[in-house]
TrEMBL record:
Name of the featured protein: GTP cyclohydrolase 1 feedback regulatory protein
Main localization category: cytoplasm
Matching InterPro entries: GFRP_sf, GTP_CycHdrlase_I_reg
GO biological process: negative regulation of biosynthetic process; negative regulation of small molecule metabolic process
Subcellular locations according to the entry: Cytoplasm, Cytosol; Nucleus membrane
GO molecular function: enzyme inhibitor activity; GTP cyclohydrolase binding; GTP cyclohydrolase I regulator activity
Record flagged with keyword Nucleus: yes
Family the entry assigns: Belongs to the GFRP family.
SUPFAM superfamilies: GTP cyclohydrolase I feedback regulatory protein, GFRP
Keywords, ordered alphabetically: Cytoplasm, Membrane, Nucleus
Species: Pelodiscus sinensis (Chinese softshell turtle)
Length: 79
């Protein structure tokens, strides 16, 4: 049995300028362009745990997770 308590806080990046707008609306995501970036991204102020719970209800499941520096990345698949 693996027990893991996720306590990270938001904001959580949830997509880029090519993401499904209906899904971004469902998540309550806001589109922004950070100074110096040449791309747009969607983010929510929710913690990753909240976002992952919402995505599970929308039919997604976590396939893998990794850390990149101080960033956590989840790979999801829609059933």
């Amino acid at each position: 049995i693996v027990n893991f308590l996720l306590q990270e806080v938001g904001p959580t990046m949830v997509g880029d300028e090519h993401s499904d707008r209906h899904l971004m609306d469902y998540l309550g995501a806001i589109k922004r362009n950070m100074l110096g970036n040449h791309f747009w991204e969607y983010y929510v102020n929710d913690a990753p745990r909240i976002v992952l719970d919402k995505l599970e209800k929308y039919g997604y499941r976590v396939v893998s997770m990794t850390g990149v520096g101080q960033t956590l990345v989840w790979c999801l698949h829609k059933e």
